UniProtKB/TrEMBL annotation:
It comes from Rhizophagus irregularis. Residues 1-145 form the Protein kinase domain. The keyword rRNA-binding does not apply. One of its GO terms (molecular function) is protein serine/threonine kinase activity. Pfam families: PK_Tyr_Ser-Thr. The keyword Transmembrane does not apply. This is Kinase-like protein.
Amino acid sequence: MEYADGGSLRDYLKENFDMLTWRNKVSFAYQLACAVSFLHDEGIIHRNLHSGNALIHQNIIKLADFGLSERIESLTTSTEFFGICSYIDPKKLSLKSYTLDEKSDVYSIGVLLWEISSGQPPFKGIENYKLIAQVVQGLRETPIP
């Protein structure tokens, strides 16, 4: 794996958020969307997108940790639960046998866009079991002021 001088997106935002312009944030959002679009065009679903798996090197985002990735044509329904709750497609949280697909990656990107915009990890301070119940009932992060 290549060295990422900025560390993970989570760490980068923690250390640099106050210095980021909206142009920087939009650039990160665009890079994430392009990276995931490329994966999908190549027939790959990441299935574990979160700010710890997006690395920053010279202001360029690089996706990491493809351990849970699968080829689109080989996706199967699974009852396994993996990943970080706040980034997981709500359908997977409510339907244990739901197959994570391209739309699931898009949901995770939406959560990452919220994090890039706010500088905070999503649902900060909410325990996983409470978060799952609340997301299944329709809870989403609060709007950014």
